[in-house]
Design goal:
Helix content: 55-70%
Number of helices: 8
Number of strands: 2
Strand order of the largest sheet: 1-2
Largest sheet: 2 strands, antiparallel
Strand content: under 5%
Length: 261
């Protein structure tokens, strides 16, 4: 008697497409359709696993019935089981084929497009780097050392002017801040090296509530003179430096901000 041995899903899924491994060896990509494909694969694996169990059970029943003899009723049941096995096996193979087609589409379209874009970006970046290096070499070869030093000095002066202009604009904006809107942003004031302190207060409220240690740290970072152990004195110096038109005034044990005319 002819019998059908059920196939397994894992053997087919493990050899779906060789491009997946070769693509991942060069780039780490996540195509837009890959999550959906992966979810579908896991769902199909679960269904095919259950299908394999059903096929195994049907196959076992076929063998047991075959051992019982050649009664007409038994022969009919064997034929029915054989047909069921054929149908299940056909559905199994069709499911595997659908997964293969989906992965082929993902690998041949989305992955290739992403690889192409990343390659173009890498090439453009490499060209920019090479051009910059060659320009630097040409400048050193054709421009006198004295002129190069002068250009560098002018660049430094220009950077200082830009920083001072930014700080002036920030102070002008900070002068418009009012205590009735303490959550408004405090515009940034750059240090001499062009950076901003990590503890720079983001708002007017944060500046008013600054503790003495932070105020001392900011005084040192901005290289401001007369750093004090008194919170109010340091805050008043910082308020003036940041362009904020307020002063801190002590009243008994408390301190409050007073606007300047």
């Amino acid at each position: 008697m002819d019998t059908i041995s059920p196939t397994t899903a894992s053997s087919d899924l493990d050899t779906i497409h060789p491009l997946a491994s070769s693509a991942s060896s060069n780039y780490s990509l996540t195509p837009s359709a890959a999550p959906a494909a992966q979810a579908l694969i896991w769902e199909m694996k679960a269904k095919l696993g259950a299908l394999d169990q059903s096929l195994g059970a049907l196959h076992g029943q076929t063998v047991q019935i075959a051992l019982l003899g050649g009664e007409p009723q038994i022969a009919e049941e064997i034929e029915n089981l054989r047909n069921q096995l054929w149908d299940q096996d056909r559905m199994h193979k069709e499911g595997i084929q659908e997964i293969k087609l989906l992965l082929d589409h993902v690998l041949q379209n989305d992955v290739v497009e992403l690889l192409k874009k990343q390659a173009e970006d890498d090439i453009a970046g490499e060209i920019d780097r090479i051009v910059e290096e060659q320009v630097a070499i040409c400048l050193k070869s054709h421009i006198p050392q004295e002129l190069q030093a002068e250009v560098k000095e002018q660049e430094t002066i220009l950077e200082v002017v830009r920083r001072d202009l930014h700080n002036s604009e920030s102070r002008r904006t900070n002068a418009m801040l009012r205590s009735s809107h303490e959550d408004d942003s405090l515009q940034v004031i750059y240090k001499a090296d062009g950076t901003v302190p990590d503890k720079y207060p983001p708002t007017l409220k944060a500046l008013f509530e600054m503790d003495v240690e932070t105020s001392k740290e900011l005084m040192k970072e901005y290289e401001l003179p007369d750093c004090s152990n008194t919170r109010e004195r340091n805050l008043n110096r910082l308020l003036q430096f940041f362009g904020v038109r307020y002063q801190m005034v002590r009243e008994g044990a408390a301190t409050r901000s007073v606007g300047l005319a």
